[in-house]
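Lab channel / #folding
Pinned by the channel admin:
"Please post every new chain as: sequence first, then the structure tokens as a reply. Keep commentary short and put observations after the output so the thread stays searchable."

First post following the new format, from NK:
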Amino acid sequence: MLLQSLNSVAPLATLVIIAVAAFAAVVQLRHLRASNQLSGLLTILHYSQDPEEQKRRDFVLNDLETRMQDGDFRRSLTQLPIDPSVHIELKVCDFFEQVGNYVKRGLIDESAYLDTACDFVETMWEKLEPVIAIMRRTRDQTLYDNFEYLTARARLWIARHPHGNYPRNTRRIAVRDKWLTTDSTGSRIGQSLE
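Reply from TO:
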């Protein structure tokens, strides 16, 4: 009788053990995924600080619009191959194309990345959109579509968080502007001494 009772309880105990093991595995996989996403995000953010990448971004932010006034510069965007020493802005496009692909496939957490970089993604798209538009004249319309996707997601993020993403249940710090009075009195900041 006791043996019969143990035989009937054993499958139930086995089921409970399997369920607990499965739950533990799911939790472990979630932690592993989060760890991998964090590692990917940190790699992307570290690459963003690379001096060469900074030079390319400075070109896009400060010089590209002027260069786009040159018809030969624009025409060279429609040719194959494009000279990477002339069009360093394409390395920036490539970077955002790669990040967009990672975000789209869930390799980098969209929320974490866009909380850090949504405005920058939007700014870079606005600066680089004319370049992409010209290149799409002679290429497939999917050129830099992951960059486009990342920008679309950044715009949605900005629309959902128009005042930033500061947690509602955390009290804000009253930021003291100790120079407000001085700067508001009409004195000119950076005025040269004569």
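NK: The CA atoms of residues 56 and 88 lie 6 Å apart.
TO: also worth noting, The chain is about 70% helix and 0% strand.
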